[in-house]
Design brief:
This is LytTR family DNA-binding domain-containing protein. By secondary structure, the protein is of the alpha/beta class. The protein has helices spanning 12-25, 38-48, 64-70, 86-93, 106-121, 127-137, 187-194, 239-247, and strands at 3-8, 29-35, 52-56, 77-82, 99-101, 144-148, 153-157, 161-167, 170-175, 180-184, 199-203, 206-209, 213-217, 223-226, 231-233.
Length: 248
């Protein structure tokens, strides 16, 4: 299978470098065109109907996210290529999408392309990218995130997460439908992704969703009762911050 590919990046040397790396290391890709702006990228996507787009995020006038929001339908895979920006990376990682940091590392490029090949071969809808676009367009409603398990990828609204608990290098998510989902990545990583949605790290092992807090009990050093009846510990180091965030 050959992936029809487009590269969108405002810097010409980045386009040429990535095209060269693909030709040398990823024989399953065929670069049909390159674009130096989001608007040019939109025209090329309509013209070529690619399987894969390498998309730079930070471009002048219109960034990569703005470009995606303008598409009526996203029927291709995207590998984001970006310099470090913690807010951009948070948006991408929350949907379990592939991204490459500049300068591009060959081993990471090959792995990302292999992931795309698997998805295209199985003809799966790109729920990851669809979720990202929904999040970008929906400023008011509940945001969705992707929860990768060993066997599946769950897409859930953040307001359906009650709390999370550290399980060594994994994290257990407890949901409003009484389901529990064991997810890869540490609690620290999920704390970084979910703090913007009102989640509070009360303890080394616990992350709670503020909207599902029922009460704070002062006795026994203090603990939190969630709406599902769960008892959540609050460490003495996190007590002051937790109470302040619960009151805000």
């Amino acid at each position: 299978m050959i992936l029809k590919t487009i590269i969108i990046d405002d810097e010409l040397h980045n386009q040429e470098n990535l095209k060269r790396l693909l030709e040398k290391n990823c024989p399953d890709t065929l670069v049909l065109a390159t674009a130096s702006s989001a608007d040019e990228g939109l025209m090329l996507i309509e013209k070529h109907q690619p399987d894969l787009v390498f998309l730079d995020i930070e471009m002048p006038k219109k960034n990569g996210f703005n470009m995606l929001e303008e598409l009526q339908e996203v029927n291709f895979e995207v590998i984001f290529v970006t310099a470090y920006n913690k807010y951009v990376l948070k948006a991408i990682r929350s949907c379990a999408l592939d991204y490459l940091m500049k300068p591009v590392v060959i081993s990471e490029l090959k792995k990302a392309v292999e992931n795309v090949l698997k998805v295209v071969a199985q003809k799966k809808e790109n729920h990851k990218l669809k979720t990202l676009v929904e999040n970008l367009k929906n400023n008011q409603g509940p945001k969705k995130i992707a929860l990768p398990t060993a066997e599946e990828l769950f897409f859930v609204s953040v307001d359906t997460i009650i709390h999370c608990k550290a399980e060594n290098n994994y994290t257990m998510f407890y949901m409003t439908d009484k389901q529990s989902i064991l997810v890869s990545r540490t609690l620290k990583e999920w704390d970084e992704l979910l703090s913007v949605y009102g989640f509070i790290r009360t303890h080394q092992s616990h992350l709670i969703n503020k909207i599902h807090v029922k009460s704070y009990v002062k006795k026994d050093g203090g603990y939190i009762v969630m709406n599902d009846g769960s008892i959540i510990s609050v460490s003495k180091y996190k007590k002051e911050q937790t109470l302040r965030e619960l009151s805000s």
